[in-house]
Automatic annotation (TrEMBL):
Secretion signal, residue range per the UniProt entry: 1-24
Protein name: Extracellular solute-binding protein
Keywords: Cell membrane, Lipoprotein, Membrane, Palmitate, Signal
Pfam families in the record: SBP_bac_1
Alphabetized InterPro entries for the sequence: Bact_solute-bd_prot1 (IPR050490), SBP (IPR006059)
UniProt lineage: Bacteria, Bacillati, Actinomycetota, Actinomycetes, Kitasatosporales
Domain of life: Bacteria
Length: 436
């Protein structure tokens, strides 16, 4: 999935409404009546027709209507679903339910109060099961959909970012992945000396470039370290040595010929295709990757991943993003929307979605595909944090105007590490001076 650039728009404030819910003794029942009657709803999805996720969701929605009699008016809007929906949120939302990741919801809806807090929905019983949604949603995944302890995105799918490779080429790597940056550098040096291209990157995608620096900073300095520097209006945090060290590591890769030929001028997915055909060894990417490249990957390609190496003292948590359901505060058919969420959270439905898409289910008792099993294990062992240290969510304008242009130059070898930090500091100070 080509990761979309984040949406930057100014949102207006609105008054959040609340709808009363009834509850059952064993948790809120998914079949409880509501003021909206619960007979129909409108669902806008981020998927387009023909995508594996769309096919799986369409089948599940059909099964829901057959079982409950509730009509679902579904529209497959694509990744700009929230951009299309946003103008209606302050009045009567055009959709009662939609799916998206946290970043655009946090940027567009949370400040305006148009995203419902779905924490209460966790107590909804899953139809046909003696479990609630909260029983099968791990805390580490739930937190990826929260803003200030309010659950505005109820996760159904989790993306883990890490180093991906072909396990058929590296059969022993899963048992002993690089633990530190020095370990990784030795592995890359070995591959380079053998005439291989160690790394793949479609450098025309700024968000893909950003994975490198943001994850290196967090792996060395800890969660919230990049976020702290980004929001420091004095710029002083950038003077701490760990930020320069991370940039120096990237400079070495860019200037040392570690990336596959053509990456600087690539047009996505050209370099990703090279990786999938064994012309490059490793790529930092989200766990959607196996499902995305399977149609053109080399025969016998065995997908595997390992987490971003840590600092040698502690294991590095996994950059993660949750995709899930959102209910606008003024949704006309909230009860029906909650019923659909509970149905889709059924084990059979969640397993089917994971199997069809080769992605990571947010439901803890589903079985991951072999392609993403390593990523799931890494999240359980190392923990998770918001991809890009949540800077793309909380400082979206700074991210686009200051960080990404400089980061693009760093990773393509057009800016030294020292110059990168100096410019990042000075431009950040200037940005915050005028942003206040």
């Amino acid at each position: 999935m080509k990761r979309n650039r984040h949406i930057r728009v100014v949102v207006t404030a609105c008054i959040a409404g609340a709808l009363a819910m009834t509850s059952a003794a064993c948790g809120k029942s998914s079949t409880s009546a509501g003021s909206d009657g619960g007979k129909e709803l409108t669902y806008w999805s981020m998927y387009k027709e023909g995508e594996p996720a769309q096919v799986a969701l369409k089948a599940s929605i059909g099964a829901f209507t057959k079982q409950t009699g509730i009509k679902v008016h579904v529209q497959w809007q694509g990744r700009d679903v929230l951009t299309k929906l946003q103008p209606t949120l302050n009045r009567k939302p055009a959709a009662d339910l939609f799916d998206r990741n946290l970043a655009p919801v946090k940027s567009l809806m949370v400040p305006a109060g148009t995203a419902s807090d779905l924490t209460d929905v966790l107590s909804t019983q899953i139809p046909g099961e003696n479990k609630t949604i909260g029983d099968v949603l791990p805390d580490s995944y739930r937190s990826l959909g929260e803003v200030n302890k309010k659950l505005v995105v109820l996760p159904y799918n989790v993306v883990a970012t890490g180093f991906w490779y072909n396990a058929a080429k590296f059969p022993t790597l899963a048992a002993s992945p690089p633990k530190t940056w020095d370990d990784l550098q030795k592995l890359l040096d070995t591959q380079k000396a053998a005439g291989h291209a160690p790394l793949a990157l479609d450098a025309d995608i700024p968000d893909y470039n950003a994975y490198w620096y943001t994850s290196m900073v967090v792996s060395q300095l800890g969660v919230n370290s990049f976020h702290k520097a980004a929001g420091d209006k004095t710029g002083a945090t950038w003077d701490q040595p760990g930020y320069l060290k991370a940039a120096q590591q990237i400079q070495k890769l860019a200037s040392g010929g570690y990336f596959v030929s053509g990456y600087k001028a690539s047009k996505f997915p050209a370099i990703q295709q090279k990786w999938a055909n064994n012309k490059a060894d490793f790529v930092i990417m989200g766990s959607w990757l196996p499902g995305e490249v399977k149609t053109y990957a080399a025969a016998g390609f065995k997908y595997a991943s390992f987490p971003i190496p840590g600092n040698g003292t502690t294991a590095s948590p996994v950059p993660s993003t949750a995709y899930g359901w959102v209910i606008p505060t003024k949704a006309a058919h909230r009860t029906a929307a909650e019923k659909l969420i509970a149905f889709l959270y059924g084990k059979a439905q969640m397993q089917s979605f994971a199997d069809s898409t080769s992605t990571i289910s947010a439901r803890s008792d589903t079985t991951p595909s072999d392609a993403v099993a390593g990523a799931v294990a890494s999240m359980k062992t190392n923990g998770t944090y918001q991809t890009d240290d949540a800077v793309n969510q909380d400082y979206a304008d700074w991210w686009t105007k200051v960080f990404e242009p400089l980061d693009d130059k760093l990773i393509t070898g057009n800016l030294t590490a020292t110059a990168f930090i100096a410019k990042l500091k000075s431009q950040s100070v200037d940005y915050w001076k005028h942003a206040l």
